[in-house]
């Protein structure tokens, strides 16, 4: 398993199955559209065992409506997608341990206080989205190439 930076927990929980990711990348470079597999894997990132049942409060907080309005991030005039299913899971399963709460608060304070940190995080996000777009366009280009040969 490849350890991933984990901004949600004071002790890292996130990890990626390196063999699965390698297979996804190989398929993407061969022209297969594996973006759904990446989205599904991202949606399975483990969260701590929930102590709150989202069924009892998520609808009353209008979390899904809130996320529908935020389904895109605008950065430098360009819209970038967010993984709404994952964000909904995070918002509807808040942490209860103080260490994790303080950890998340410290990250938000740092992003708010230091523009260079925010700029680096923003750049990282846009570059990761660009990488995924390139993997998806490999599939599209392969389809176009196949069509031209007919």
Give an account of the 3D structure.
The chain is mainly alpha-helical and 150 residues long. It folds into 2 domains: 1-48 and 97-150, no CATH class; 50-94, no CATH class. The chain has 6 helices and 4 strands; from the N terminus they run E-E-H-H-H-E-E-H-H-H. The strands form 2 sheets. It has a two-stranded antiparallel ribbon with strand order 1-2. Strands 3-4 form a two-stranded antiparallel sheet. A hairpin with a 2-residue loop joins strand 3 (72-75) and strand 4 (78-81). The chain is globular, with a radius of gyration of 18 Å.
List the helices and strands and how they pair.
Blueprint: E1 2-3, E2 15-16, H1 18-29, H2 35-43, H3 63-69, E3 72-75, E4 78-81, H4 84-92, H5 98-113, H6 115-149
Antiparallel strand pairs: 1-2, 3-4
Helix pairs in contact: 3-4, 5-6
Helix/strand-derived category reads: mainly alpha
Instruction: Give the strand line-up of the largest sheet.
Output: 1-2
Taking the alpha carbons of the first and last residues, their distance comes to 42 Å
Oligomer: single chain
The structural domain count equals: 2
Number of helices: 6
Order of helices and strands: EEHHHEEHHH
Give the overall silhouette. globular
Residue-averaged pLDDT:
77
Portion in beta strands: 5-15%
Say how many strands there are. Answer: 4
- Poorly predicted sequence stretches spanning 5 or more consecutive residues: none
Largest pleated sheet: 2 strands, antiparallel
The value of Rg in angstroms is 18 Å
Provide the helix percentage: 55-70%
């Amino acid at each position: 398993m490849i350890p991933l930076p984990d901004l949600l927990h004071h002790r890292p929980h996130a990890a990626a199955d390196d063999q699965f990711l390698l297979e996804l990348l190989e398929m993407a470079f061969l022209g297969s559209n594996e973006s759904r597999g990446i989205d599904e894997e991202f949606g399975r990132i483990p969260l701590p065992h929930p102590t709150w049942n989202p069924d009892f409060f998520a609808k009353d907080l209008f979390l899904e409506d809130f996320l529908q309005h935020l389904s895109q991030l605008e950065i430098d005039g360009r819209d970038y997608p967010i993984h709404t299913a994952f964000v909904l899971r995070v918002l509807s399963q808040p942490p209860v341990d103080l260490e994790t709460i303080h950890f998340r608060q410290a990250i938000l304070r740092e992003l708010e206080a230091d523009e260079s940190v925010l700029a680096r995080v923003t750049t990282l996000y846009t570059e990761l989205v660009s990488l995924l777009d390139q993997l998806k366009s490999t599939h599209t280009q392969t389809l176009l190439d196949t069509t031209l040969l007919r």
